[in-house]
Specification:
heterodimer, A: alpha/beta, seven-stranded mixed sheet, five-stranded parallel sheet, 9 helices, globular, B: alpha/beta, 7 strands
Chain lengths: 358, 147
Amino acid sequence: MKKVDILIIGGGPAGLMAAISAATYQKSVLLIERDMHLGGQLVKQTHMFFGSEKQRASVRGFDIAKSLIQDILDNPHIEVMTKTTVTAMYEDGVITAVHSDGYLKIKPLVTIVATGAYEKSLAFPNNTLPGVYGAGAVQTLMNMHGIKPGQSVLMVGAGNIGLIVSYQLMQAGVEVKAICDAAPSIGGYVVHASKVRRMGVPIYTRYTVKKAHGDKVVEGATIWQLDNQWQPIPGTEIDIACELICVSVGLSPLSELLWQRGCEMTYVAELGGYVPKTSDHHETSIANVFVAGDVSGIEEASSAMVEGYLCGLYANKKLGVDDKDMTALILDYQQQLKDLRSGPVGDKIRAGLMRAAL
Amino acid sequence: MTGGHGLSLLIYRLFRRLKLFGFFMANWVSWHCFCTIKGHHIKEEAMRIVNHPILSFERGRVITFTYEGDVYQAYEGDTIVAALHANGIKILSHSAKSHEPRGLYCAIGNCSSCLMVVNGEPDVRVCVETLHDGDEILVQHGKGRFV
């Protein structure tokens, strides 16, 4: 049995920041990541981040990841285990994990779950054909491994991820044939939409995929228009020849561990699906189990990082650390989170979080 | 494509078994195979990103692997799925009931769409596994079975 003060599950933006702040007050921290490297989705983000300077605005995602990972590896209070999958959280507080050397039991005092999210799929005939990929998978292939996922692509989804990945595909030399989105308007920021439009990519709003074509792999797709009731309009079909259909229709929290532990869960559409109910200190209905980042509601990497940092501090507070600097830090980060969620873009998030409050 | 590989594959496997020759010899043979088989280099060049406005890609030494018995090359450090895509290969498994081809979907080890048989071991999530020199990769048909 391995004993640690604070266990963090997930080494993405939230988990990295949680580890850094959790280790501030000499507590022993264990950071577990199932992939072979830390960084989560940050390592494939080539665009510059928004927000303020405190959230590393105008730094590219992979550079943020690099500096956070270095901080963690240099920190003597943080132990990192990669290629390790947490398999269960038991009622007696024992957490089990699997890695290449075998099976591991861990008994932490506090656990921060920062498992992130998974990509949603979209139902259309032939959506299982090789060549129908999630936007994150496309980013992995091209931004981490330097491989084009195909020579031409239809992007499904005009949210920020769909628009950003379209632009990245063009940077990689892939022809973006079109972007379609079932919603009546473009969901992503205007700045991203303008970027791809300037490159001559048509964006079809109120269009969805009718069918993917191809015998063994994707060779094309037919899209068609939707009416006000979201019903397809026959006769509006557009055929698109492409090797790739990139699906960017949103994310859902990866909350299996929380379900298993018995955390109180609730469905909040604005947050991407079932999320844990949380206190204003990010603690779930199960004492000493905290959540940070997308697993507690889909937002973006900047707020995940701030949430992660806050959670590391809350965990210390829970363990009895009482420090004047910490109180100031908590206030500062709470304000940052508020700022990130301010304005009309944050309306949905704010409404969703209210409904997920314990 | 398969027919032309038969002999090269035989030589390749023979040399891999002869441990005395070591992997240098095996590498030489696989290099030789690649130089003689047209098409691989072309695919490789077509799918690898060479000039990128923001990113640069550090590639390790050249290693070889087989997919369905055919020999391919990749770089050390590639994940299995990256190596396959660099060679234009998208079909990773066939579904259990309808036997339809399946490919990558999430690339983070979550969706199980990319399960393949690697060196005889089934159900390997090839999107999160690193490729090793000499790996033998097979398309998985339905549920995994240990032979």
